[in-house]
Amino acid sequence: MAFELTGQIEKHLVSDQIVWLTTVAPSGRPAPRPVWFLWDGASITIYSQPDGAKLRHIAASDLVSLNFNCTPGGGDVVVISGRAEVVHGAPPPSEVPEMLDKYLATIQTMGYTQEWYDSYSIAIRVTPERAWTIPA
Which domain holds residue 13? Predict the structure, then answer.
């Protein structure tokens, strides 16, 4: 079943601040972690620090999943599975206007400047292949 962008999925991709990225460690163990992300209409961009375990995991297996937070009662579930790749030569996150529009207020609330975000200098592109949902 191919990826179909429904209204429910798009709402999370556009509005949510955090998604849980799950990579697969070389041992086969799943490794979920909350990450900031940007949806461009076709793929999801996530930035990583150069020594991030997620990069080693993606080098070993490009299969990933993205899980969005659901409602307290267990509704509005959105899970996307796809393939991840490192994007060599991507601009740093402080030079991506859409990233700053989405996260600059949070960065400043944390007491940092937008340049701090550039310590996450490695871009990862996730291309969705499948999704499953539970309605709200």
Answer: 7-134
Q: Please name the amino acid found at residue 46.
A: I
Q: Does residue 2 lie in a domain region?
A: no
pTM of the model: 0.94
CB proximity list for 97: less than 8 A, separation 6 or greater: none
Q: Count of CB atoms within 10 A of residue 3's CB? A: 15
Helices (H) and strands (E) in the chain, counts: 3, 7
Of 20, 13, 4, 81, nearest to 44 by C-alpha is 13
- What is the reported pLDDT for 122? 97
Model pLDDT for residues 92-108, shown as the tens digit of each residue: 999 999 999 999 999 99
Q: How many CB atoms lie within 10 A of CB 120?
A: 20
DSSP, res 26: T
Any idea what the CATH number is for the domain that residue 72 is in? 2.30.110.10
